[in-house]
Amino acid sequence: MSKIAPCLWFAREAEEAANFYVSIFPGSRIDHVQKNIVDTPSGKADQVLVVNFTLAGQRFMALNGGNRIEFTHAISLEVDCADQAEVDRLWNGLAAGGTPVACGWVTDRYGVSWQIVPTALGKYLSDPDAAKAARVMQAMMQMVKLDIAGLGAAYRG
Question: A Pfam family for this UniProt protein (predicted)?
Answer without folding.
Answer: 3-dmu-9_3-mt
